[in-house]
């Protein structure tokens, strides 16, 4: 396609001469060209994720000590895994981690985000709300190794900050070996993970609250709705997509948690805080049962993948239903 443009030019005697010049319009960029921009990321994903996962899956069908040639055993590792009480115990512990890293932070994050946005922001200013939001988010910025070491000092049985505080306020009878008692270790790790994870949902929910129409809150307030009713009937329905994202993201993070367990308890005492990712790690590098460790990590990866697909499907269905109601 060409565009014809008339342009006046000055002739030899100073008169105006009209000429026609044709300029070619740039052709439309083909859609396939955008693939070139995605290609580096696709290649990196294939090299870093797909290939190692396929290699790990292949090793899971063998018996291998990490050296020499692997011996093909078929489904023997998976049959052994289904009867392994230690694996099922670690999987139950990961369900506790889902509560600590997904359920509790989501609920607390919702309430805190609504309070910072609807109360602190209005009465003390947005800067105060932003500072408090940053304070809650700070544990997300800290490396998990640093956070774990600090908390191991706080929860130490002797001269630990928590026990010393209990003693100082006259509650010395409540002093415990928080990370060394099999009955308390898992709950102590859960408490640390709530502290670590809380900032993420808080920031996501506060971002979601900024897109809610203020007229909805004004209308609810004019109708006599208190803060809790506005939160329940206005805030929650409006930020439902953010809730789905937070729950899915935090659940996946809980299922693959490793760093906190490694730093705080190393799966102990007596396997009380063992989780599948750490169980796979110790099977790989301490017991040198590479094939069996690969089977554990493969099962965990499949569980996470299925959970992610189900979560995305439920989110899409909910969004489609909401759009249908609006239409």
Write the SSE topology.
Layout: E1 2-10, E2 16-24, H1 35-59, E3 62-63, E4 71-72, H2 76-82, H3 85-124, H4 126-141, H5 144-154, H6 161-168, H7 185-197, H8 199-209, H9 214-222, H10 227-238, H11 240-255, H12 259-264, H13 276-285, H14 290-326
Helix pairs in contact: 1-14, 3-4, 3-7, 3-8, 3-11, 4-8, 9-10, 11-14, 13-14
Structure description:
- The structure is a single chain.
- With 327 residues, the protein is mostly helical.
- The protein has 14 helices and four strands.
- A two-stranded antiparallel sheet has the order 1-2. Strands 3-4 form a two-stranded antiparallel ribbon.
- β1 and β2 (16-24) form a beta hairpin.
- The longest helix is centred in the N-terminal third of the chain and has 40 residues, at 85-124.
- The model is unreliable at 1-20 (pLDDT under 50).
